[in-house]
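Structure ticket #2291
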Amino acid sequence: GYGGGGGGGGGFQNSNLGGGLNTIDFSQRQLVPFEKDFYIEHPDVTARPDAEAHAWRASKQIVVVGDGVPKPCLTFEEASMPEYVLGEVIKCGFDKPTPIQSQGWPMALKGKNMVGISATGSGKTLAFLLPAMIHINAQPYLKPGDGPIVLVLAPTRELAVQIKEECDKFGASSEIKNTVVYGGVPKGKQIRSLREGVEIVIATPGRLIDHLEAGNTNLARVTYLVLDEADRMLDMGFEPQLRKICGQIRPDRQVLMWSATWPKEVKNLAQDYLSEYYQVTVGSLDLAGNKDVTQIIDVCADTEKYRNLLRYLKENLSTKDRVLVFVETKKGCDMLTRSLRMDGFQARAMHGDKSQEERDWVLKEFKSCQATLLVATDVAARGLDVDDIKMVVNFDFANDTETYIHRIGRTGRAGKKGIAVSFFVPEKNGRMARDIIEILNRTSQNVPNELQAAAMNSRGGGGGRGRGRGRGRY
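Resolution: structure written out below.
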């Protein structure tokens, strides 16, 4: 059968990255003051009683922590966004802010540090980008040799490119320039954009450090810093790089940190670099999983997985439905893709050994539904932000609960219903049984008897919560 095998590739070969960067002693520097509080509360928001704001948060499963948290803005008008931003938003056909935007915008516009904990696909990119545009427009223009005003750090090239696409859309009207820098491609074009001067830099940590060491840019003017998918960046072993980069940025900057989960490593990072912050959590912190996703656990033998997969694909899907299939290894990914193609499916593979060009092409095919079946490893799927995925299949079961939640969270987004099918092989995955049953119960899903039996047989159960450290090379 497929699967088996350990994780992909060795860890990162980047332990000495940033060795040439000295931490700056900002107490010795004369820092030019800058403006970061642009929030003007709309009269309708002011008039709304606190009790109503609490009730709205409860209805959206939003929990806020912090002193003097602003009330949410329920419409674009209430967010007091300037015309040039509002026009773009309306042009894109959004009728009202998503919950994370309603609560996140006033926090960000007040110039406060914030931690947003929410699933990917909740509209968080605009929750940090639109306030970033307003922040930039209030700062003095860039002079020759100046680095960016806004820095967005992301774990993977795919996510970085997606953030850039949003920047292009919403920054055009106010002539805000951006560039994206990531590894795996030649540096020439990136160097040119950085040296010409751009207000927003979106970067993966390793490549940004290369550019800083080479003097292609600097972070002296960064006053708005975003860490996107912070939990993934830590998982991928980027903590030393993040700390190096933060040491280059003035201490009174505004920081917005986003994460899908809230483990202690992420908490420590927030305490070190945000000191005082608002925290906004959408959905529950205990990784409950999403009620819009029907979770099917298929307890079977390794040898039955492929046949069962074909059955689910035939029974549940129309020709235009996208499916994302997770496998554990790169080799398994290629093998499964080949088999599916031989059986007449438009399948494509995505894993860490594919060239950047190939990955961009596969993503385009998947987004445009030219290929509706994408087979991927966890690392390759991290930066994938495709909203309308009908079904997620765990062909090889996840190694821990957080990965399981993360994977199934790729479907059932933006209020749509989704299906997550997971092949559970008791000999291999037995230790996960108890945790998975707990997740199924919390979202009122069907728990198969075979899974109950696996939980009974797996001595001690549990123990599936480990957080992988930097597997796969990016």
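Closing remark: The chain has a mean pLDDT of 85.
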